Amino acid sequence: MRAAIHELKYRNLRAIAPTLAAYLGAYALENGALADFVVPVPLHPQRERRRGYNQAELLARELGYAQGTPAAVSSLKRTGGGASQVRTGNMSERRRNVADAFTCMDASFSGKRILLVDDVCTTGATLEACAVALRAAGASDVYGLTVAREV
Per the structure, how many domains does the chain have? Predict the structure, then answer.
């Protein structure tokens, strides 16, 4: 799984996104993580420009398509926290790095269940910060779903 994520994230192998999204979809179905919208964790705009795409967005689009659930790929914005989480040390540093880094202005999320998608969860700080923004926009439930968890 590590190799697959690295190929997607760092080697531009976008064609692997549907396969990884199928794993996400199967897990979500098995665990009752039903949602009204699928939302990717956004990259910092500079990082997305450098990479040329957001791997979480590719996964969210594929997952949404497979489940018949709208992928709201522009609803959550990264407005701060430019330092890469990979380069931060411990959990408290990661939490500080992403505190108030995300904004959601989508009024259609009010009372809705959101499936928040990313490629990897290390400490959960990014997913938490995104969930705070989604809940502030009125989401009733936010489920975090990642392809892998770093252990």
Answer: 1
CA 26/CA 6 separation, integer angstroms: 21
The rounded distance, in Å, linking the Cα atoms of 100 and 63 is: 27
Question: Which residues form the domain of 142?
Answer: 2-149
Dump pLDDT digits (tens) for 27-52.
Answer: 999 998 889 999 999 998 898 999 99
Taking residues 112-119, what's their average pLDDT?
A: 97
**94 or 101, which is more confident:** 101
Q: Which residues of 24-44 are buried (b: 16+ CB within 10 A; e: fewer)?
A: bbeebeeeebebbbbbbbbbb
CATH code assigned at 142: 3.40.50.2020
